[in-house]
Write a structure and sequence with these properties.
Strand order of the largest sheet: 1-2-3-4-5-6-7-8
Helix content: under 10%
Number of helices: 1
CATH class: Mainly Beta
Largest sheet: 8 strands, antiparallel, barrel
Number of domains: 1
Number of strands: 8
Radius of gyration: 26 Å
CATH topology: Porin
CATH architecture: Beta Barrel
Oligomer: single chain
């Protein structure tokens, strides 16, 4: 996993160089808000050097992650997410089987998208970094029930329309107190995202009405006919 972290840090540094703005960019160059609903796959097997072992992923049939993304400028945005995972007792959890319980996570990320650099096409790669709070509901003396994590990851949005896309991402989470120990885990997700130019409806085509009916009462003007003067 250390090699994976080093690669992501290198990519994030390179993207930061390309992202330096030459002039102020307004929200009209991209979206204003983005919302997501995803299926989560959690890798908490305790093997830091094999972060993508499919057989150890804890998964669900129902979506268990929501994200809210606020765009700022020039590819940068802020993101908050809530996720929940249920451990499968048949799979490894920190080197053990038979573990029952769940994992709740709340994360806050800075996000950089390559969407503008790639000329606003269908493929939209992005990178995230930030902090999170993870809470495990099972009891184990070697595991902290609540841990603060440093997060780094990336993903891709595939835009099937101007507003709807499919998102795939992976995020590595490292415990701040017990660095590179039992609190570390990875979280993968796949889901649907929707972006909007505005939530108020000024610029959003979904909220524009083709026909507007005025509710104001119109006053009917009465034209007074002038009386013709009798010829004297």
């Amino acid at each position: 996993m250390k090699v994976f972290f080093a690669f992501l840090i290198l990519v994030m540094s390179a993207s930061n160089v390309f992202a330096q703005p030459t002039k102020a960019v307004t929200n009209k160059d991209s979206y204003s808000w983005m919302f997501g609903l995803s299926w989560v796959m959690t890798d908490d097997d305790g093997d830091a050097f094999n972060p993508f072992l499919v057989q150890n992923l804890h998964t669900h049939l129902y979506p268990s992650q929501i994200t809210v993304d606020k765009y700022f400028y020039n590819g940068w945005s802020g993101e908050a997410s809530l996720s929940y995972s249920i451990y499968n007792d048949q799979k490894l959890t920190n080197g053990e089987t038979g573990i029952e319980g769940g994992l709740f996570a709340m994360d806050f990320h800075s996000k950089y998208s390559l969407y503008k650099i790639l000329n606003k096409g269908m493929i939209d790669p992005f990178f995230v970094g930030g902090i999170g709070i993870s809470s495990r509901s099972y009891q184990n003396e070697n595991i902290r029930p609540i841990s603060l994590t440093l997060n780094i990851g990336g993903g891709i949005n595939f835009w099937v329309s101007n507003y709807i896309g499919i998102q795939i991402r992976s995020t590595a989470k490292v415990g701040v107190i017990d660095f590179f120990k039992k609190s570390d885990y990875m979280q993968h997700s796949i889901g649907v995202v929707a972006r909007f130019e505005s939530l108020k409806g000024e610029d959003n085509e979904f909220n524009k009405s083709k026909y507007k009916i005025s509710k104001k009462r119109k006053k009917i003007k009465h034209i007074k006919k002038k009386k013709k003067k009798d010829d004297s």
